Amino acid sequence: VTTAGQNGAAAAEELRLLELQFVGEVLAVFVHETNNRLATLQETVGLLGDVMNAPGAGKTTGLRESLRVAAGLEGQIALLAELVRQLDAFARRVASPAGGVELPAALAELLDLTSRLARQKGTRVERDFDGRLPALAVEPAAFLLLCFRLLARALEAPPQGTVRLLVRGRGPESGVGVAVPGRAGAVGLVDETARGLVRRLGGRIEEGQATDTVMIWFPSPT
Amino acid sequence: VSGPATRRRVVIVDDEREFAATLARRLELRGYEATAFTTAEEALAAAGSAPPDVVLLDLRLPGMSGMELLMTLRQLVPGVRVVLLTGHLDHEARIEGLRLDSFPYLMKPVVMDQLLAKLEAEPPGRGEAGDR
User: In this predicted complex, what is the ipTM?
Assistant: First the structure.
């Protein structure tokens, strides 16, 4: 039995996910263009280095210094390219309306993105799972929004230590969770939006006053 | 900057004109005979008169797609080596219905050492099968 309030909440959630998918699609387009500019920039800086390194180019102090600068630029471009690659993968996953989630890749992207948020707040997010994780048959956009929401809430109040993103397997279920040291009961981590997302994804929430961890369990795909 | 033992003919097909031209120049400095094209049609016309040894191919091209060019080139120049250039292979390969292990590929921005290794690798059937 669903109430009018639940129907309204589900419609709002649907709209939020559509908006998220739209943002993912737009982001993916811009990221693609950014990557193309980076690729051109990399070749241009590389050519500059090639020309300065060519036989007969001479090796004045100024030239040697320029070569060092060019090498530094190439290094920065490579770092930026890696960030763009992660953002691209994230955007495409969010934009994907159907299909499942490859947990290792999705969570690695999420960790990378939230790590930057954590650094700005003077704390850290750490992974607590290994690489042999299952796929989940859930909507990517909703799943990532749920994980991001849990992590973002965990980072809102400065924790006493590192926030951990957990993945666990238990029987026929796979669980994703967040642990916040010193925050007994992980109070307030799961807000109404997160609860709606869990319902939508067919998961269940495990939270208790005696633990600093919230886990969301999903049936493993057969 | 050092070149290959024999002067290989490399064709770059990418609609990012400056990227393709700059990459061609860098390969020339390394002893390759490199030519850049921004459309599949231009590349195909040139391949008829001067068959390339290796084609560096962007899958996303205006007009004839990179995938169509790849298929046509393989008929026109049997044994030609094709290396895909892509910003996001999973996505682009899915659009083109391409199996990821079918072709060597490089992600953009390109790492020169990796590119040179691909250019000098033996073509599939001569010791290499679908490398990455």
Answer: 0.80
Task: Choose the mutation target among B15, B28, B88, B113 for the interface with A, i.e. most A CBs under 10 Å.
Answer: B88
B22 neighbourhood in chain A, CB within 8 Å: 40, 43-44, 46-47
pLDDT for B45 equals 93
Residues facing residue B11 across a β-bridge? B35, B55
Chain segment B59-112, per-residue pLDDT in tens: 888 889 888 899 899 899 998 999 988 877 555 555 555 655 577 888 899 999
Instruction: Kindly tell me if the per-residue pLDDT of B57 is higher than 70.
Output: yes
B29 touches chain A (CB under 8 A): yes
pTM across the whole model: 0.72
Q: Which residue of A has its CA nearest to B15?
A: A36
Three-state SS for chain A is: CCCHHHHHHHHHHHHHHHHHHHHHHHHHHHHHHHHHHHHHHHHHHHHHHHHHHCCCCCCCHHHHHHHHHHHHHHHHHHHHHHHHHHHHHHHHHHHCCCCCEEHHHHHHHHHHHHHHHHHHCCCCEEEECCCCCCEECCCHHHHHHHHHHHHHHHHHCCCCCCEEEEEEEECCEEEEEEECCCCHHHCCCCCHHHHHHHHHHCCEEEECCCCCEEEEEEECCC
Phi-psi region of B49 (alpha: psi -120 to 50; beta: other; left: phi over 0): alpha
Closest partner residue to A38 (CB to CB) among B18, B23, B109 is: B109
pLDDT of residue A62: 85
- Taking CB atoms and an 8 Å cutoff, what residues of chain B touch A45? none
